[in-house]
Input
Amino acid sequence: MAMTQTMKAALLYGKDDVRLEEVARPQPGPKEVVVEVKVALTCGTDLKAFHRGQHTMLGPFPSPFGHEFGGIVVAVGNEVEGFRPGMRVVAANSAPCNSCFYCRVGQPSLCDHLVFLNGAYAEYIKVPDPIVRQNLLAIPSHLSFRQAAICEPLACAVHGVEESHVKLGDTVAIIGAGPIGLMLVRLAKLKGARVIVIGRNEFKLDNAKHMGADEVISVYRNARPEETIREMTEGRGVDIAIEAVGLPEIWERTIDITRKGGTVNFFGGCEKGTSIRVDTEKLHYQERTIVGVFHHSPRYIATALDLIARDPSRFDGLLTHELPLAHLKEAFRIIDRRDALKIAIVP
Ligand SMILES: [Zn+2]
Ligand SMILES: [Zn+2]
Output
């Protein structure tokens, strides 16, 4: 009998408890692909799961962990088409079923049977069938693994900007200058908008300028960003505001910086069970539109990889640190201290 090969993998056991363990190396089923992880990126979602000890995208504990990665195909099942060992690939962290009500009406990000993939903080990861067929992509040769791995969060941001219906010449405010906020800045610029970023951390606001922000407002120095926004927009407020923080109190304030007839996009997910208060006049008599946007779809994953391939170095600033897999906990601590964006974890 052949000896079972093992690998190192980080498992999340609960709140603030992640452990590096020696586990069985995955073998592909007939329709699956096994990828050697070359880099995995930290994500705000991972950080939330780590600190809260729960997340809807994770399975029961101990759970494989990490979902943004790039790597090399090392094994493919005998029914897999289009992939072979040696190929450089990037995968999304989910795929829709294509047969439920939401998939059929063209809202696959709301699919009732999304198959999620976690376990990128490991030496190898097994990509399940629905993701292999829809959301496993070859990395263009001029992109590094870490550039390509930005594809999944960028796809969420693409979804967010598309659902905001940004038009040429619009003024768009992005609230929050974390990695997702910075991606939204870049995409809103590509849409032809004037972009104002509201954030707290100077380092991140500098990064926002590199991503194309026209103006930045530091709430650390400016206690009344709402007033500053009105001054910048002839007293009206912005056409579109996208919240990328995920706090109910910030959601409420985001409504106040939009103009009559404007659009508010609640992009940052808040903790379960929270709620906000909305002045009905601002919705009805002032005709604001409020949208919530979550996750991505295969179309946006492909779009995101294309956008990275056209301007790869633009996104390099999002990766501020690199650490070995054994130091994953340290990576989360670095991000908590706010002097970091995303961290490349190398197995
Ligand atoms: Zn992510
Ligand atoms: Zn579905």
Summary: The radius of gyration is 20 Å. The chain is about 30% helix and 30% strand. The mean pLDDT is 95.
